[in-house]
Amino acid sequence: MEKKNKVTVKINGQDYPIAGAEPKDYLLKVGSFVDEQMDEVAKHNNKLSTSMIAVLTSINIADQFLKLQAHVDTVKREHTDPLNELEELKDQYTFVARELEEKKEGLQFLQNQVEELISYKERLEAERIDLEEKLISKEEDLSKAETIINDLQNKLFENQIKLVQLRKDLEEYVNTTEVTSKIKSHKHK
């Protein structure tokens, strides 16, 4: 069973025990935050009862939470664009890799033809020259395809690094939000 930490915090002049799995420093920080929020509400209207101050403070904190949650949703949506771009790059990479394989097969075929033509050199000299020009063209195409693949691999790697960082940032943010939610649920218990 998870160990519960217990602290006593002063909120709006009264002591309240708080228990949770989080470290004591964190629990004290939560209590201090609530106290500061209640003090802020009380400063603006000294005629409010303690329960009214507590309700208005809860509304303010809920407003902050919902705005942060909306921001998280926006950030999540913004992270789908790089993921979609990554998928497009993967598709392009697959297409180019397929083209490269076809080019390699074509190159191999031409190389075989060149070897056959060498044995018929005297009779087929004009045809051999034509095939050599085609071979050079294919090698240039292959070189261009390899350059494109290298560029796509670099972009894929960069996007994977970005994705890992974005996931890490999102996990940290979600973990922070979950801790806040746990604290609120512990408070209500």
UniProtKB/TrEMBL annotation:
It comes from Natronincola ferrireducens. This is Cell division protein ZapA. GO terms for biological process: division septum assembly; FtsZ-dependent cytokinesis; septin ring assembly. Its main location: cytoplasm. Gene3D superfamilies: 6.10.250.790. SUPFAM superfamilies: Cell division protein ZapA-like, Tropomyosin. Homodimer. Interacts with FtsZ. The keyword Lyase does not apply. InterPro entries: Bac_CellDiv_Activator (IPR053712), Cell_div_ZapA-like (IPR007838), Cell_div_ZapA-like_sf (IPR036192). The keyword Hydrolase does not apply. It is found in: Cytoplasm. Activator of cell division through the inhibition of FtsZ GTPase activity, therefore promoting FtsZ assembly into bundles of protofilaments necessary for the formation of the division Z ring. It is recruited early at mid-cell but it is not essential for cell division. Keywords: Cell cycle, Cell division, Coiled coil, Cytoplasm, Septation. It comes from the Bacteria. Signal peptide: none annotated. Pfam families: ZapA. GO terms for cellular component: cell division site; cell septum; cytosol. Residues 83-169 form a coiled coil.
